[in-house]
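B., you asked whether I could sanity-check this one before it goes into the benchmark set. Here's the sequence:
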Amino acid sequence: MASGATRFTLSPDDKAALVGRRITASATCRATRVSRRIFFRERLGEPAAWREIDEHSVQWLYPELGLTLLLSSEDGAVFEYAAPRDFVLPAGVALAEP
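And here's what the prediction gave me:
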């Protein structure tokens, strides 16, 4: 967008999963792709689940923290927080290997 903001389009599955849910916080972070991944892994650990959104974006999910992290090589990182008790894993995620 002209302001520098980025708009992400939700898939129909994501929209259905979010009905009735409240987003309590969101934020963005710009940095290089490699440094972002290292930065978040060092601070948050490995995600419990993940899924590829497209060729530029991956979503990491931390249900125990109530955190969803969207990492994009083009647009930076976007965080979504919901109380862990309200966190729902979306359809199509790959669970991390123990």
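One thing to flag: DSSP finds two helices and six strands in the chain. Otherwise nothing jumped out at me.
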